[in-house]
Specification:
The structure is a single chain. With about 400 residues, this protein is of the alpha/beta class. It has three domains: about 130 residues, Response regulator (Rossmann fold); about 140 residues, Response regulator (Rossmann fold), CATH 3.40.50.2300; about 110 residues, Arc Repressor Mutant, subunit A (Orthogonal Bundle), CATH 1.10.10.60. About 45% of the residues lie in helices and about 15% in strands. The N and C termini lie far apart (about 95 Å).
């Protein structure tokens, strides 16, 4: 039964994914989530590039595939065969001139790279004031790197901050060679007016920026704040700090690809314009590389003010760090340097001081427990005794004898 039939009992689907990196695995996870209720879809997967040839255009039963989800291309010959087959095809973050020329049964799902660049700029602008900005391209300067750069530069310009781009000239014969890349990168970060806000096209390149800064004796984030893309935790160890990063919504891309292929299966005679869906970024992870550009004393004052202002709530050290816009590790370090204590103890001190004031005003324990969000009276009694070294009753007896 051909893919042009109105209804099939079973669809053979081939998905092409590169799974060595997190982005590919997360995207495939979204695809599997969305496919879990499609009992009439039979799924096969194959690695891209030289592993995806014309031999893979039928399943192990010798049946042709009814549809394709391609997140990476295969050999030139296999892409030509797919384009000629008229089989429903969804392209995910890739393009192919032959498939793109088709006006039927093709859909494209793209990362919204303009949104990625905008979010990176907004994150940096929220973290401090800068004299300049910088953008580091991905190696080879792929199209998505240029799209992210364009949006980032435009947003910074609205704040009257000029953006220096590395490498500036994207002509292939003038790109920086791998041998000279790090040397030139050091020159570039050295020349940025400080403090500077830098976006890198990926976390790999962000780690390069941070290491270049370290080699030049430039403090991150005090002198140069850095944000990347992908939220690739493996890159943190390469530069010795957590990297702030725009988190791409790869799982949603996988799910969307399934929905688009389902639409194409359901409309075999559809001849409208090819679907193009943009998937915005998920969020921005805030790491040490963009901690707010404030002095240690001011950071601690901000923490103390937040703790005192929320003394009736059950806040945690993570809540304090999130308010400061830095990692908990950095917040704890700065707080210890100035106050000689931990965030957790500072929170407990503020809450117990508030509880003691309420007791002295004659409030009942049950009312204090409810107003301050303790889980029970027993929990409140335990914390009180641990903090003050005596029970509430012992304190009342001491006051009565005074």
């Amino acid at each position: 039964m051909s893919s042009s039939s109105k209804k099939k009992r079973q669809y053979n689907v081939l998905a092409v994914y590169y799974l060595r990196e997190f982005a590919g695995r997360d995207q495939l996870a979204g695809l599997l989530d969305e496919m879990s209720n499609k009992m009439n879809w039979h799924l096969d997967t194959v690695r891209p590039g030289r592993f995806f040839t014309e031999r893979e255009l039928q399943n192990e039963d010798g049946e042709p595939f009814d549809g394709y989800i391609l997140s990476m291309p295969g050999s030139d010959a296999v892409m030509k065969r797919i384009a000629a087959s008229r089989a429903p095809t969804v392209l995910v973050n890739i393009t192919d001139r032959r498939l793109s020329a088709r006006s039927d049964l093709v859909a494209s799902v793209w990362t919204d790279n303009a949104d990625v660049g905008l979010r990176a700029a907004e994150h940096l602008l929220d973290r401090g004031e800068y004299k300049s900005a910088g953008y580091l391209h991905e190696l080879g300067v792929p199209f998505y790197s240029t799209e992210r750069m364009t949006a980032f530069r435009a947003r910074m310009k609205r704040n009257r901050i000029e953006t220096s781009v590395f490498p500036e000239n994207t002509d292939s014969h003038k790109r920086v060679s791998p041998e000279r890349f790090f040397e030139r990168l050091r020159e570039w970060v050295r020349g940025l007016p400080k403090p500077a806000a830098v976006m890198a096209c990926s976390d790999m390149r962000a780690a390069d920026v941070i290491n270049a800064c370290k080699a030049e004796g430039i403090s991150v984030p005090t002198q140069v704040a850095v944000v990347g893309v992908d939220n690739d935790a493996a890159q943190h160890a390469k530069c010795g700090m957590s990297i702030s990063s725009v988190v791409l919504n790869m799982r949603t891309m996988g799910k969307t690809a399934v929905r688009e292929l389902e639409f194409l299966f359901a409309h075999p005679k559809w001849r409208g314009r090819p679907h193009e869906i943009l998937i915005p970024a998920k969020e921005v992870f805030s790491g040490e590389s963009t901690a707010r550009s404030v002095s240690t004393a001011k950071l601690v004052n901000m923490a103390q003010s937040f703790i005192n202002g929320n003394r009736t709530r059950r806040i945690s050290p993570d809540n304090v760090a999130a308010h400061l816009g830095c990692s908990r590790k950095l917040a704890e370090l700065r707080f210890s340097q100035i106050c000689g204590t931990t965030l957790r103890m500072a929170i407990e001190n503020a809450r117990m001081e508030e509880a003691q004031n309420r007791l002295q005003r004659g409030e009942a324990v049950a009312d204090i427990v409810k107003a301050m969000g303790f889980t029970s009276a027993n929990q409140f009694y335990r914390i009180y005794k641990r903090h003050f070294g005596h029970t509430i009753r012992q304190n009342d007896l001491a006051d009565s004898r005074a």
